[in-house]
Specification:
There is one protein chain. The chain is mainly β. The chain has a domain of about 220 residues: Neuraminidase, CATH 2.120.10. The chain is about 15% helix and about 40% strand. The chain has three helices and 23 strands. The strands form six sheets. Strands 7-11-10-9-8 form a five-stranded mixed sheet, with no helix packed on it. The chain has a four-stranded antiparallel sheet with strand order 3-4-5-6, with no helix packed on it. A hairpin with a 4-residue loop joins strand 3 and strand 4. The longest helix is centred in the N-terminal third of the chain and has 34 residues. The radius of gyration is 28 Å and the shape is globular. The C terminus is likely disordered.
């Protein structure tokens, strides 16, 4: 409104300019979107950096051998897992299936044949001997991975993870120590066997096993690992019931598995995060987590000393070297034989002593 007084026009003050409601909403959503983009970018960058860090580009390995070390000859197709009996005999799986790696694998791995070897620790200067598998066993479809043994007075039962061409299985064999041979008994398959890595026997027909992931196809498995999806699990298989049950539903690539000498604890390694998780076995075979041990290395298989209960871990120190090793088997990758010694009962200990042997010429 304007008022004219003489020759002067006076205009009243208009109210301050205000944004419309729609403009305010647009400003708010723009700011909110920018915040989300910033947070997402930071999280993605943090994840990428954590993956790069886990590959160990910043690490350097030095040879450390507290005792004599030699290469045991007689194994031409790699050695994946080992189980040592109470009398010092060791069963070693060889010829793991690496075809899921596709073109990333050394072509010589395509010619590997699945075998189980025997080594006697009481004769440390001797070499391995191959254990023939007798009975109606399909040797052409044998790609062994993890191994475990259940010892009884009358029979020694061997459980071996087998990546068969069309399905996962666990082969059950009987060891004849006098004849140095294995007798095929039967195969176990289960819908819960998706990507079986390792097995530990807890009875003559029962065991735990790890699925180290969900996908077996190369690209899907790469995404699963890169994005660190916890799609692995631990299964208990009851031979009497003839079925498995999930006892650890989520895990980041659970790998090696073993048990304490008294059967109270189950140990599971996770190389992707560098930990060993200690579980207490319940009466119904469920597993209760009680301790996570951070190792600053990538643990693979677990050996438990039957007398002392000490853990010995085969570890991959530098991740990217292990990846390059799969592409060219002649290129060594830094490895460790690593032992965290528990100083107190497992549920209460707070400190760990570390014993280790590491080298650049072996793949533990």
């Amino acid at each position: 409104m304007a008022v004219v007084r003489g020759m002067t026009r006076v205009r009243s003050q208009s109210p301050p300019h205000c944004l419309s409601l729609n403009s305010q909403q647009k400003c708010f959503f723009t700011m909110f979107r920018n915040i989300l983009i910033g947070i997402s970018a930071a999280l993605i960058l943090q994840h990428i950096l954590s993956v790069i860090y886990s590959l160990g580009f910043h690490k350097r390995a030095y040879n450390h051998r507290p005792g004599s070390c030699r290469v045991v000859t007689g194994i031409d197709s790699g050695s994946e897992d080992i189980h040592v009996l109470r009398n010092g005999l060791a069963l070693i799986t060889s010829g793991i299936d690496l075809t899921p790696l596709g073109h990333l694998m050394d072509p010589s791995g395509l010619t590997w044949k699945g075998r189980i070897y025997l080594f006697d620790f009481k004769q440390p200067n001797a070499n391995v001997t191959e254990l023939p598998i007798l009975g109606s066993f399909d040797h052409s479809d044998f790609r062994p991975h993890g191994i475990s043994v259940w010892e009884e007075e009358t029979q020694t039962t061997v459980f071996v993870v087998n990546h068969k061409q069309h399905r996962e299985a666990i082969e059950v064999l009987s060891l004849n120590q006098d004849n140095k041979s294995l007798q095929y008994l039967y195969s176990i398959t289960d819908p819960l066997m998706r990507s079986v890595n390792d097995v530990v026997a807890v009875g003559s027909n029962s065991f735990y096993f790890t699925n180290d992931g969900y996908n077996n196809q190369l690209f899907k498995r790469f995404l699963e690992r890169f994005l660190k999806f916890p799609w692995g699990n631990v299964i208990y298989y009851d031979g009497d019931a003839g079925r498995g049950q999930v006892v650890v539903s989520r895990g980041l690539e659970p790998n090696g598995i073993n048990r304490s000498p008294d059967g109270r604890y189950i140990y599971v390694s996770s190389p992707i995060v560098g930990t060993v998780t200690v579980y207490e076995q319940q009466a119904d075979h469920a597993l209760q987590p009680i301790q996570v041990i951070d190792l600053s290395t990538s643990p693979d298989n677990i050996y438990v000393d039957s007398t002392s209960g000490d853990l010995w871990l085969g570890c991959h120190m530098i991740g990217y070297q292990s990846m390059l090793h799969f592409q060219n088997f002649t290129q060594p990758a830094a490895s460790q034989a690593f032992s965290p010694v528990m100083l107190m009962p497992v549920a209460y200990y707070k400190s760990i002593l570390f014993r280790q042997c590491q080298c650049k010429t072996c793949n533990v």
